[in-house]
# Entry
Amino acid sequence: MNLSLSRSLRFRTAAFFLVLALLGPANSYAAPAATTIASADLLIVGATEAGWAAAIQAARGGVDSIVIVHDGKWFGGQFTEQALACVDEDKGVGRVGWGVDWHPMKRSFHRSGLFKELMDRIEAFNTQKYGSPMPGRPYHGPSTFRPAEAEAIFREMIAPYIDSGQIRVHWNLYPVAADVRGSRLHGVTFAATDGGEGRLAVAAPLTIDASDWGEVIQVAGAGFLCGPDPKSRFGEPSAPDDLSCHPANEMNPITWAMIVAESDGETPIGRPPRFDDRNYPRATHFSRQAFADLQWDQANPGLGAIPHWPDAGKESPRQLSVYTVRRIVDGLTSRDGKTSILLNYMNGQDYPLERLPAPVVAALEATDKGASTQNIVTMNREQRQIIFDDAKQHALGVLYHLQNFVDQRAPDKTNSFRRFHLSDEFGTPDRLPPKPYIREGLRLQAMYMMREQDGRNRDGVTKNLAKERFAHVMYPDGLFAWQFHYDFHRTGRTYLKSEGNDGPWIDFHKPNRHTNFMSDRSVFPLRSLIPAELDGLIGSQGNVGFSSIVSAAIRLHDQRIHIGQASGAVAVVALREGIDPRAIPYDRALLEAVRHELCDPSTAGVPLLIWPFRDLDPSHGAFIAINRLAALGLLPIDPREVDFAADEPATEPWLAELRDRGFEFEQSAESEVTRGEICRQFWDQVQQQDWTRFALHRVDDRDADGDGIADRDDPLLFTPNEPIVFEIERPKLGPDSDGVPAVELTSGNADDLRLIDFRGPGGSPPQGWSTDHGAAFDDERGYGWGRDLRSNHRRRHVYEGPRDTFLFTRKSDLWECTLPNGKYSVTICVGDSGHDQPGQNVVVEGVPFAEDLSTVAGMFAERTKIVEVRDGRLSIELGKPSASSNTAINWLAIQAIR
# Structure
């Protein structure tokens, strides 16, 4: 495992080959006369959060010469120049960490790597200045910061490497040309963002593209995708069969975020051009009430809204309102006494990229015919700026609407947005951030494109049924852990029928572009950083190998830093070994060298979480051993056991499984050793061996494992498998979940037993059963509903018997049956043979049988309890008044207790 050459010698070797490349034949661009020439071991384009992380990771790994070129002047990307000042992190269904109580997504990992280092410093700064590490108390969060203050911390963390000369930074430049010879990128030329004539040409054996729009990938001619993917491309379950209603310029929308700070008096902004209050029917409840009857050219676009601001004295607690949803400093509890708020608000502020407004279309078409239907990724900077200018005005319209329309209608104006001004921390003429929040951009055509079916949760169709588990596919070249829902904001745009594209508009959800599907605990594959064809280039930021759907789940603050850190580690190993990154996934020693850079005690900084255990903190003494062993496939891992429990005793069955994997350990009968300590011993043994024991044996250059699936489409490079298809994993049905009445329920004294089959009309009930078709209670029949539910029935034609049919209630309904007073054993079966049914509720005579109970298609819940009838009627309450889901009852058995 020892490297045959020292780091410095490897880097000198790489520099030698760079000189040869520069002296060789140049069959690409000719540099303009006013071009400054520079060289580096590693060129990083973009000082975004990923570019920043890649540079620090590479510097710590020993890369001697790193050049960063950025088209702005701020480090930090979405944290800073895009003003996303309320941190969104990897989340899952566990209850570890922060998150609003009702939300099914909770933070699911301990912070690790450079992200933890950054957040520790941000929260330490917040504590010193504001008196709390998390001063905003936002509804979504919890960690917040002022963008300019965060940028200073980004700059502080990278400063030692800049001061030493190891990293050089060039600001306000963007890529205009690439030196590509054959299939290798040798360098990039940059122009000034202000239109100046000077050029900078940087030659480097390796370039990382961490720009916002994948500009190096584009000028270098590497393959990329943008816009929607049809189902035929990657076989994803929620991708459209065709793109007829998904034009090429449909993307996750951009949003021009705003930071507003509390003023001493009223500081309203001026009216934005083309402002119209009708653009904002979702902004607040007042807005929705006023504009609920507007007729849009898209049917039922949805008009949900949230409260405007809290009344005086009620503003401080975490709560849902425009004021508090992403508040970054709570003035009532912070030391500085001034409230600051991030307005990044999907109920009015998002800017879809399809069906652009008529003035924007006209301006784009004036630059080039067809430009208005072009994807924003492939637009030039002048064309993007046309969209940006309109997005800015639309965002400012939200603030103007709040300061005027909403203020006029709010009874309590104490916390009105008229008392807030746009922050001046960005130093821009309009006081807006330099860039919009970019959710989706270019997607590199990589060695492997991550697909929805690899990681999407298989407990049910929607995330409401998800249970904790690892992903169906755990990539063998995984470099860091991630999890989130496939989070599409509204990608469609609809206009008023009466005014068309010249008038007001709102956004709406396109089919399957929403937040209802989620991933399981996943890893990010190294192959998704490497272009399918071009050498000398590594993708980063959002310019990596995934589908549009997966890109919606891998765009958070921590994920982008992890991507940057991973790309930096890949660059370190490639430069040290004098190889192209595409060789690394096929070579065990190289792959483990990358993981060593990310997760090793000798590496500066906090190690990075590679395997997505929920409970593993990087401060744990066995963190590195557990991560590295899990990534190697040497630990027994149950897909449902997402906690490793490092401090629990190592059991003999678990130790036996480790011995099967080559671990030599004899446990004393008198001592109790923890699982974490065992892993440390096991990892010590692994490191003493040569990597040849774990070598990756390639059967074919195009199909490494010989399973008939080309490597480019094979998520499991060295594991023969069938193509990955998304399927709901049906649970094994037992006596209490198969929906089949127990044998003893079909026999016995008819006076003591009543069996009710809830079904629509038609068909014959089983012998001995009574049928309920949803009719209201009738004294002669002796049972029935509090209202007529005869239209609320379904039959799925999946099973025989009473489990195939059901009656359902969406809110709260009462079913009663005449019975003598006394005690009864009651069995109720709820569920649906054909569809998932989340959030079912049943109470019998005050006894809860089901509380927010979810069943997947084909699974049932049979519950038996003893209840007492005191008023001559057995009363069953189904659903609940506030429910937005069905409660589906299949059958009921009532047995008298004598």
Observations:
- The radius of gyration is 30 Å.
